[in-house]
Amino acid sequence: MSAKLSALAASPASARPRVSMREVAARAGISRSAVSLALAGHPSIPSPTRARVRAAAEALGYRKNPLVAALMSVRRNGGADTMAQASLAFLTSHAAPDSWRQVATHRRFHAAASARALKRGFSLEEFSLSDPAMRPERLEALLRARGIHGALAAPLPGDQTSLNFDVRHFAVVGVGSSVRIPAIDRVADDHFYGAQLAFEHSLALGYRRIGLAVAANISHRLEHRWWSGFLVAQQKVPARDRIPALMPETREQIPGRLPAWIERHRLDAVIFSHRTPAEMSRAPAAVGLVSLSVHEANGTIAGIRQNEDQVGEEAVDLLVSKLHDWNAGEAAAPRLLLVRGAWTAGLSAPGAGKRRSGLV
Length: 360
What we know:
Blueprint: H1 3-10, H2 21-28, H3 32-39, H4 47-60, H5 66-78, E1 86-92, H6 104-119, E2 122-128, H7 136-145, E3 150-153, E4 171-175, E5 185-189, H8 191-204, E6 210-213, H9 216-221, H10 225-233, H11 254-265, E7 269-272, H12 277-280, E8 288-291, E9 302-305, H13 308-324, E10 336-339, E11 342-344
Parallel strand pairs: 1-2, 1-3, 3-4, 4-5, 5-10, 6-7, 7-8, 8-9
Antiparallel strand pairs: 9-11
């Protein structure tokens, strides 16, 4: 046995470099396309050549990429006009399997991801990890049996941060930043940047005593990125104008505490993590109201419109890249790809000294 093969045999599989089809082709002395056909047992490749390729692949420890195998199979059987050559899973975790659709941001993530997947030659199939009839172990076996090797993890509900799914045999990308366990790559809104941008635009509108209202459980779920961005942005104003955030444990507690907090700190603007007019309008009419999650840039609510479409698209692109490299399981150094939102003006923040309109 050569020194190279001895070293490979002694090292754990996860630590070995992935052998490419190009290396097999070089060892067998044929083209890469011929290697692909030979490994598939195609009759156009002579039997002795197929045997030589299989021997080279075995000696090098070549491992077939299941995604490539699935695509090649469909192309052989369905032709070049087949729209969806393979499937990706969209894993949801809400208690009621369909309840994630009640969140507009999640619906936009899914729609953008589904459209992007189709352009990349995939269909996006939804699977619920909370379905009593589909335990995680059974779902894992089902996906593998159906040749689904890649999954998008939808945003988790509530303050949940763990995905109840064994990712060892799958390439997985989180949509949003909520999944912390297992260690997977994620694509999310740049909440830190959004909070800074909202503060800066509030200053530009003439507001000086600006507060942040965000629930503690939401802040924790987002790794305190909104709060951190707000604290950094506050350094632009004198210390006397740096207002402590209103941060009760849950969002439902914010409306009841809002008026007294505004009065105590003499606020002229509030940045909210959410955009519910009935809750935001508990503030006096002279106080400007800004949201960090504006859904429609229709001129009513001022704030940050997150780019949900790009988040969904980038998540699919990253997942497909991981599949082509057969990068499965937990990541040794998980990546967090951040997508910046943009400011949108609105009647809820007309400027310092002006009474707002557009909200109750």
